[in-house]
């Protein structure tokens, strides 16, 4: 009998998986393929109605430093961890906000100018949003003049988008309806950390891009100060839905390993994440004055901005490119994390 408060070892869950309504799997490092890893932390599913009492382990590869969830529910089981009301799947359509000036984004780290349509190349062109969720970004980009396609694994999301007249496809990459070299831009907003094989997804994205096409990837930053402060209560952890926990170094390494040129990896501010993390810590450990202070938006604004200025913001945004020439393709030898807008 497995103690539900203890993360099972591979042997234990293989011997007795009948008590769970999902299947566990163990994985080697998703970046370098090595099996040697050390435990970083354990945490429960933070969503109401999650698998009560069950905890998930986050480990760090001893070879390359990638942090990932292991063991984890297998791909066929993951739907059990996405409730019907999962917030990113809620379909919302609002008037697109006016883009803020670039100096504003550079100074405050938000809002992300790429999210508002300031992409490395200009329309007309074709844009694929991988893990398109609510469709708000598709709507903005269509308004900017892009020919958009959304891709998501949530049927209700895809159906709602199709009803609104968007081209939305159900599934992941590779997808039979998407042809190689058919997109000028591919975006992945808080999506890459959810997939079981991130390198495979990046490889397929590379193939879908035209030579010289751009990939925009946003993921939570496991090397951020809030991740260190809040540990298992950090909003960006979101176990077990987040399977890879990137840092600037490992995100760059994975993009480079899949032959992308990495132009920049920089921080983006998420004030609401900080407030949510404080709320979770209060719920688990009780109120403290500094946690209450962080729930006050002006205080959270200042704290998030300080993290951004120090290069330890909660979200990472990478701009990468499929090399414009096929061969030989120089790969950037060294990476330096940038926190200012490109
Ligand atoms: Zn590794």
Describe the structure.
By secondary structure, the protein is α/β, with parallel strands linked by helices. The protein has helices at 10-15, 102-108, 136-144, 155-163, 198-208, 225-230, 248-257, 271-285, 289-294, 297-309, and strands at residues 24-25, 37-44, 55-61, 67-69, 72-73, 126-130, 147-152, 168-170, 183-189, 209-220, 244-245, 261-268, 315-321. Strands 8-7-6-9-10-13-12 form a seven-stranded mixed beta sheet, sandwiched between helices. Helix 8 crosses helix 10. The longest helix is centred in the C-terminal third of the chain and has 15 residues, at 271-285. The relative contact order is 0.13. Mean pLDDT is 85; it is low at 1-6 and 333-342. Bound molecules: zinc ion. Zinc ion binds at residues 29, 31-32, 34, 61, 63-64, 66. Pfam families: Methyltransf_23. GO terms for molecular function: methyltransferase activity. This is Class I SAM-dependent methyltransferase.
